């Protein structure tokens, strides 16, 4: 019995030691790596994370805006940083639909040195990628796609395969909100037919906080009606508004 007990205790100590060292290796084994925070593709087994992209739209900016910036989060894991890390980005032509004049990449980006706090497996920094408005983008309902990959500097590796690349979507229009369904309550009794121009004017002049949603419509219809009436007042005070199809912008209520 004593031998079995000692054997059991030794095995517990061994497993505990191995577990601790395994955690340490993840952070302190010297394998300095960069990788994006979002997965550009679904995680490989046994991971469960889904593919994600950074979506940007000129819709939410003033009409004269020609350039917007997409903020993309980059992760670092490895030994604690003592100096900034320079790195680059390269465009992956397969999968990129954006023209060269529709984006600008810096020659070099910087991951700024930060302390790695106890228990952290990685630290984060944010870079900005410039997206430029083009005439063709104004006519593209689904926008364009920029596909980039990290290019680490000397002594730095690439991290998890599914996070070595990033997808940035640039568009001129906004996705139709779920609460403004075709032939739905909002279309039939409040705002009328959807158009991007109408939606933008509604956000700018009646609902800048974008508070209208399905929950409001269901639980507080008085608030939803109030927003539409506010928009109607603006339309009356500013007659002649046209949507992107040349139709008069009106509301049902």
From TrEMBL:
PROSITE patterns: PROKAR_LIPOPROTEIN. It holds the Pfam family DUF4843. The keyword Signal applies. InterPro entries: DUF4843 (IPR032299). Residues 1-21 form the signal peptide. Keywords: Signal. This is DUF4843 domain-containing protein.
